[in-house]
């Protein structure tokens, strides 16, 4: 496996970061682990991770790579809140994808465009 393909393995930890963040925040807030599954946030993590890794890999300059990651990070608080509330407004899977993954994809894409 060459270095280029190894870069795409970053999708795995980024994907699992979102359910982990939700579990940690729940634990800090309520002092116990959630009883239901936080795996509903995995699709959100997969979609956003694939877009982030793809655009960072596609970026031709260091500045563009950096702005792409910054766009993702700036969108993260909106995605976190959106994924929680989206799962209440809609069925959990589409709610977390629309209100969680969409802000991340938009923030990442905007960061990519700004980095020109």
């Amino acid at each position: 496996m060459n270095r280029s393909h190894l870069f795409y393995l970053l999708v795995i930890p980024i994907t699992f970061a979102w359910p982990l963040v939700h579990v940690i925040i729940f634990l800090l807030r309520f002092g116990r682990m959630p009883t239901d599954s936080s795996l509903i946030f995995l699709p959100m993590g997969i979609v956003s991770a694939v877009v982030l890794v793809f655009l960072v890999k596609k970026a031709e300059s260091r500045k563009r790579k950096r702005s792409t990651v910054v766009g993702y990070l700036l969108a993260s608080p909106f995605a976190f809140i959106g994924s929680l509330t989206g799962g209440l407004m809609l069925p959990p899977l589409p709610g977390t994808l629309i209100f969680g993954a969409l802000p991340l994809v938009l923030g990442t894409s905007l960061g990519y465009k700004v980095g020109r």
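Residues 18 and 90 are 19 Å apart (CA to CA). The chain has one domain: 3-114.
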